[in-house]
Write a structure and sequence with these properties.
It is a single chain. By secondary structure, the chain is mostly helical. It has 18 helices and two strands. It has a two-stranded antiparallel ribbon. A hairpin with a 2-residue loop joins strand 1 and strand 2. The protein starts with 13 loop residues before the first helix and ends in an 11-residue tail after the last helix.
Length: about 475
């Protein structure tokens, strides 16, 4: 069978993708404005990465060296990598404004099998990110309770791998967010927008208060472990940027997606990168890098510097900020399930839309239950690494897909066009692969195992139940956009 006729390489045309998104049985409500989208982006980006994982990235751990004050360069390196991928996402999202993000873009350019692998790894990205975010939320929540004199037993606030039995606060916040998401994405966006204002205010507060007590001597040595430490930290705090791509998963629910999705993606990433660099500089200037607390680094840095009241403010803002990340990450996970189910690659019940709320309620409930169980029993470090490798893999495919679609369908309308083609996508591919190289070997092994499992699921279920195989068995795949 010629390669172009093989089911693995069948493409889903852009007109067909758009038509499916408008089918009455699977149509999502178009309620999101450009402010909602930008708020969702900032809500997803600023959270666990800056409030929790920055500590591990600065100090290091048993598996890799830390960046020290060079964490500023780590944030810039990760930010540039994400910016290159973000431009590719923006072009795709404006062309194909539907749920599914990189999965849908891959289906239109790389064929069904790679689309499935992309979707399978997006499930890994968003699902495990939700777990890591819920665990980070639990840590700050317990910190606040401690300042009020309330101490929960260790067995109820830590996973078995962290010295406890179950992390109940992490599981409970996931179930609470799930209940809100079932009611509607607009309600979730409003909640996220309010929380975004709180956490930006808290971050500006930290920068303003902490900057007055910065000791320049703490920035020396700037890179205690050389560029190896900076690169390893960049691979960790890349998690801090995971989320801007979640904006593209809500494209189908945007009122003016061709204009607003690119703005939401690029604006949220730019704002967050500036804030990250400033926070990193102040944090490492306040406290010697090897004394930074890895569990609540930002709040503890203020406490060590003598601002006890400031530490309480930051901890409260961190809880609010991490909550918004959980909202957006779960939205991304749910929309991936929804898109893959609508294409027949996952069970059809996952794409059922609630008759009153207009949300994929089955996918929402499944995601909420699964994430709450994992958050109750999984340590945070392993969750972050697995999220990063899945995300970087998806970014590589999106950058590749933009290049392919410029060749195979050059005349399709592009409301947003990437400048400096083909260099932006090529640099994006190289940067993502470079960060992947800094991830631990164990993370790569887990990633390969996950991908093998996904391949088996595709051949066992997805390939036979694909809507493309049902509609045109044996036909050549549609050429995207024709």
């Amino acid at each position: 069978m010629p390669a172009q006729h093989h089911p693995l390489f069948r493409l889903k045309s852009i007109p067909q993708i758009l038509a499916d998104s408008d089918h009455p049985d699977h149509r999502l409500k178009k309620t999101l404005t450009v402010w909602d989208l930008t708020a969702l982006g900032i809500g997803a980006i600023i959270g666990t990465g800056i409030f929790v994982l920055i500590g591990t990235a600065v100090v290091g751990d048993a598996h890799r060296p830390g960046a020290g004050p060079g964490i500023v360069l780590s944030f810039i390196l990760s930010g540039i990598t994400c910016a290159l991928a973000a431009l590719c996402y923006a072009e795709f999202a404006a062309m194909i404004p539907v749920a599914g993000s990189a999965y849908t873009y891959s289906y239109a350019t790389l064929g069904e099998f790679l689309a499935w692998i992309t979707g399978w790894n997006l499930i890994l990205e968003y699902g495990v990110a939700c777990v890591a975010v819920a665990i980070g939320w639990s840590g700050y929540f317990n910190n606040i309770l401690g300042t009020l004199g309330i101490v929960l037993p260790a067995w109820a606030t830590h996973s078995p791998g962290s010295g406890g039995l179950i992390n109940l606060p992490a599981a409970m916040i996931v179930l609470l967010v799930t209940a809100v998401l079932v009611r509607g994405v607009k309600e979730s966006a409003r909640t996220t927008g309010f929380i975004v204002l709180i956490k930006i205010a808290v971050i500006i507060f930290f920068i303003a208060v902490g900057a007055r007590s910065v000791e320049p001597a703490n920035w020396s040595p700037f890179m205690p472990y050389g560029f190896q430490g900076v690169g390893a930290a960049a691979a960790i705090i890349f998690f801090a940027y995971v989320g801007f791509d979640a904006v593209s998963t809500t494209a189908e629910e945007a009122r003016h997606p061709q204009r607003d999705i690119p703005i939401g993606i690029i604006a949220s990433l730019f704002i967050c990168t500036i804030l990250y660099v400033l926070v990193a500089a102040v944090l490492t200037g306040l406290v010697p890098y090897d004394q930074i607390d890895v569990h609540a680094p930002v709040a503890e840095a203020l406490r060590i510097a003598g601002f006890h009241w400031g530490a309480a403010v930051v901890a409260t803002g961190a809880v609010a900020g991490i909550t918004s990340v959980l909202f957006v990450m779960m939205i991304g996970q749910i929309r991936i399930f929804f898109a893959m189910s609508r294409d027949g690659l996952l069970g059809p019940w996952l794409s059922k839309v609630h008759p009153r709320f207009g949300t994929p309620h089955h996918a929402t409930i499944l995601t909420g239950v699964a994430v709450s169980l994992l958050a109750a029993f999984i340590p945070i470090g392993e969750a972050a690494d697995m999220t990063n490798i899945g995300t970087l893999f998806a970014f590589v495919l999106v950058c590749t897909g933009v290049l392919i679609l410029r060749k195979t369908n050059p005349h399709h309308p592009r409301p947003f066009r990437i400048p400096l083609m083909p260099w932006i996508p090529l640099l994006g591919i190289a940067a993502c692969l470079g960060l992947m190289a800094f991830l631990p070997t164990l993370t790569w092994i887990r990633f390969i195992i996950w991908t093998v499992i996904g391949t088996l699921v595709y051949f066992g279920y997805g390939m036979r139940h694909s809507r493309l195989s049902q509609e045109a068995p044996g036909d050549a795949p549609a050429v995207a956009g024709r």
